[in-house]
Amino acid sequence: MVVRHKAGEDHADRIFRALADRTRRDLLRRAMVGTLSVSGLARLYPMSTTAVQKHVAVLEEAGLVHRTRRGREQLVQTNIETVAEAGELLAQFEQLWRDRLGRICDVLAEPERGESR
Amino acid sequence: MTVLSVDRDLVALTLTIVSEFDATAARVWQVWADPRQLERWWGPPATPATVVDHDLTPGGRVTYYMTGPDGEKYHGWWRVVTVDPPHSLEIEDGFADESGRPNDELPTTSIEVRLTEATAAKTTMTITARSASISDMEQVIAIGQDEGMALAVGQMDAILVTPTKP
Question: Cβ neighbours of residue B101 under 8 Å, at least 6 residues apart?
Answer without folding.
Answer: none
